[in-house]
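dude i think i finally got it to work??
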Amino acid sequence: MKRSILAFLALGFMVSSVLALEPAFLPVGVGGKYSAMGGAGASIVDDITSAYYNPAGIVKAGNLELKIGAGAASQGLNDLLATFGNASSPSKFLIDNFNKTIDVNGGVNAIVGLNIAKIGISVIPVGRLAFTKPTAGTLTGTSLNGWAAYEGILTLGHTFSIPGLPAGLDIGANIKSANVSILSETINSGTTSGNTVINYSGIGYDLGAKARIDTPVLPISVGIVLKDISESLKGKANTSATTIYPVTGTSETSTPVETNVNDLPRPMTTVIGASTVIPAIGLKVAVDIDNVAAYSYSVIPGAAATSAPAYSLTHIGLEYPALMGLIALRAGSVSGGPAGSEISQTTYGAGINFGLGINIAALVDNKNSKNNSTYADFGFAF
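look at this
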C-alpha cells in the first residue's frame, strides 16, 4: 500500500537517538458508531467493525455488509492531508512550504470493510503526524516526525449453544497482516536534513467472545478480547541525507543505506466489556476496559532495551434511540493511558438508518484541541 494513503502517528524522535514507539498502533475508536460511544464496543459490536472491537461480533452482523468510513483531525487538516500526499518525498513538502510557519499535530484513521456470509475482510489504515516549521523563510528548527500503520484483517466467527445462555456464546478470530512505517526528517543545520524510514511487517491474531446473560434485574451482554497475540514485526531501516535548495525548488538526497533493526514486539491487549439496556427509556450503556501488557524493545541491534510499562484505558458509551429507532444519539468518554501520555477524551455523535446507514462522531481531546477530530461512515447491511 502506498505511503500516500497511510496516516501518521506522533512519535518523539531524534535521528541520533533510539526510536520509541507508543504501545498501541491503533486509535481508541474505529467507525462512526462506536467512536461516538467512546470506543466501548467489545460487548455490543455487530457489524464489520468487529475487526477492531471484537471479532465475535461478526456473528451478529448481516449476511451482506459494506462499510466505508474515515476520520481526521479538524485543525491543520489541509496541511495534514498535503503532508500525506507527499509522504514519499518530505523534502518536496518542506520546499513548497518554505515561506510558511506550520504546527500540525493531528491524525487520520479509516476503515473499508466487506462482510459476506459472516466472513469479514477489512483494511484499517490509521496514523498521526507531528510536523513543526517554526519560522517562515528558513528551515532551521523544522522537524517532520510520525509513524503510519495499516492492518488487513480476515474476521471469522461462530456461535455455540451453552446451557444457561439463551443467545449462545459467540466466538471470533482475526488473522491480520500488520504493517508499520516510521518516518523522520529533521533539519540538522541550515538546509541539510537527516532522513530515516523504518518499515515493519508481520502477522497477528485476535480472539474474542461475546455472550448475553439474563439477570433478574437487567440483561447484561459481556465481551472479552485478546488482541495482538504473540505478535512481533520484522523491519529494516533506510537512512539518507537531503540538501534542500528553496530558491530553485530542488533537493539532493544521498543514496539510502539499508540496515537491519530488531524485531518490534506488539504488546497483547486484553479487553473486557459489559453493556445493558435500561428498561422503559431504552438507554444503552456500555463500558470497556483495555489492559495493555508491558513489553521491552530495542530498535538498534546491540542497544539496551527500553521498557514500556503496562497501562489501561476505560471507555464509557451511551446510545439513545429516537424516532422509532431510525435515529440514535450517542455520547461517551475515554480515559487512562501510559503515564505521562494519558488520554482524556469526550465523544458524541449520531446515527441515521434509512436503508443506508450513516454514522457521524466528534472526538474532543480535553488536553489538546489540535487533536479534536471528526469521523463519518456509511454503509448497508442485509
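DSSP finds four helices and 20 strands in the chain.
im so relieved honestly
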